[in-house]
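Appendix C: a fully annotated inverse folding record. The material below is reproduced so that readers can follow the format used throughout the book. The structure is listed first as tokens, followed by the designed sequence.
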């Protein structure tokens, strides 16, 4: 029988008479994917062993042996010299068994005053904490790309859309900074999420706490947790922190997906608003002329996958009685996949935005049609004393007239314009210009040059100041 195959070599084998059925082993093991928690598992175990030694729960020598052994195992794993065994079920038991093999009976003392239930919750929280920092810095790169676009093409005017119909002229920089804001909220959300992730469940043991005189504050402090969990039963059952992180990732992907959708539209020959570098596009195996936006399409597609992970975990949790149930093992694969997907999507989109070239000629040309300054004409009449509803009606009729003649508002002669309403005078021509329309939108948060310049400055300042600190 190979090592670990018979019930006696299982860490929990004492009460068993039979070896585990191969099918059951394959079905229940998680080491295949949870081995990626090895660094966090060892870190948690080292803190636990140190505390056990300090508190005299195990001999100091044993504690030192354990810490030494765990560091050696860490090294082995990093060098690729560690053999993971599915018979040992998960990352925790693989490492614990290797420790005992390495240092002898002292290794068997590591699991004193601990259960895999609080151990896995601790590992998972440490892992998500690292992921939050990683995702945060990836979002920062993307935000920097938007700032770069906004700065480089400051002053470029393009149509803004509602209902995907041309609406009012805006600055391209304003559009870029809209995305900056979305991703700013995502980073703030991650920071908030961290405050609930960064709580230490270690010491809750299986569900009821422990009778050993442990010092939970000590392990929590060594592991950089902000606080210890209040209730041992909640601590081993709770996966809200993972759900919250998945929700954060889902919103990030939703933002990336909206951005992707716009890029796909903008790249079409119908819009032709941006040119993506060849390095970020792919071709067609049959149509030689094609340059396809596969990157944003894949990001849009992968968004569904991340939402799926959120729904999967919500569903896994919904019927669980307190406290630990093996269902909880299903939390990891989904979350790993969602975090990896979001990270790679962010990285590739940052590169793409950084290298994107707006087609200023086409954007400007598109502002000349579609009555983009109709609202400005209505506002002009309002400023001359007409109630807004009446002004709206007057301009609506003017647009209808123009449509029947196949003309734009600004193409009407001054006499024709004056005939629209007695309040219209020679100065009307100023408000019909696209540049004038943009320049007039000086209110805070608007698309005028001044507020957009201020927003750009504020964005740069925010980027310098914002930090998620552990
Ligand atoms: N692999 C398990 C998980 O991921 C570790 C905890 C196992 N605990 C237990 N009582 N079987 O949830």
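Designed amino acids, in order:
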């Amino acid at each position: 029988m190979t090592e670990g195959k018979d019930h006696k070599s299982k860490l929990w084998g004492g009460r068993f008479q039979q070896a585990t059925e191969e099918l059951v082993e394959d079905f229940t093991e998680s080491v295949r994917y949870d081995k990626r928690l090895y660094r966090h598992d060892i870190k948690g175990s080292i803190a636990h062993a140190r505390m056990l030694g300090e508190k005299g729960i195990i001999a100091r020598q044993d504690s030192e042996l354990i810490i030494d052994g765990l560091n050696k195992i860490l090294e082995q794993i990093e060098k690729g010299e560690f053999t993971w065994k599915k018979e040992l079920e998960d990352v925790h038991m693989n490492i614990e068994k290797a420790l005992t093999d390495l240092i002898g009976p002292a290794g068997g003392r590591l699991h004193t005053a601990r259960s895999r239930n609080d151990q896995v919750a601790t590992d998972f929280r440490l892992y998500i904490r690292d992921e939050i920092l990683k995702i945060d810095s990836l979002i920062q790169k993307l935000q920097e790309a938007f700032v770069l676009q906004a700065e480089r093409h400051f002053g470029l005017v393009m149509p803004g859309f509602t209902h995907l119909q041309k609406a009012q002229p805006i600055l391209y920089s304003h559009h870029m900074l809209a995305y900056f804001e979305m991703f700013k909220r995502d980073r703030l959300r991650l920071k908030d999420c961290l405050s609930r992730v960064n709580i230490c469940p270690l010491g809750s043991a299986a569900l009821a706490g422990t009778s050993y005189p442990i010092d939970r504050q000590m392990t929590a402090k060594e592991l950089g947790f902000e606080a210890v969990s209040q209730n041992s039963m909640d601590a081993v059952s709770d996966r809200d922190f993972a759900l919250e992180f998945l929700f954060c990732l889902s919103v990030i992907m939703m933002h990336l997906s909206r951005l992707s959708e716009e890029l796909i539209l903008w790249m079409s020959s119908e819009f032709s608003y941006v040119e993506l570098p060849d390095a970020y596009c792919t071709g067609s195996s049959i149509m030689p002329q094609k340059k396809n936006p596969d990157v944003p399409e894949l990001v849009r597609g992968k968004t569904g996958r991340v939402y799926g992970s959120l729904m999967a975990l919500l569903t896994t949790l919904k019927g669980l009685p307190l406290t630990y149930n093996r269902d909880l093992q299903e939390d990891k694969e989904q979350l790993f996949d969602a975090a990896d997907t979001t990270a790679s999507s962010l990285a590739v989109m940052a590169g793409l935005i950084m290298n994107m070239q707006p087609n200023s000629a086409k954007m400007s040309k598109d502002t000349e049609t579609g009555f983009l300054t109709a609202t400005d004409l209505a506002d002009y009449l309002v400023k001359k004393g007409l109630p807004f509803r009446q002004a709206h009606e007057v301009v609506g009729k003017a647009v209808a007239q123009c449509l029947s003649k196949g003309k734009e508002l600004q193409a009407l002669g001054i006499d024709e314009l004056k005939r629209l309403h007695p309040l219209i005078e020679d100065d009307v021509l100023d408000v019909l210009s696209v540049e004038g329309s943009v320049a007039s939108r000086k209110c805070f948060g608007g698309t005028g040059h001044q507020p957009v310049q201020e927003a750009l400055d504020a964005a740069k300042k925010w980027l310098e100041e914002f930090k998620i600190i552990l």
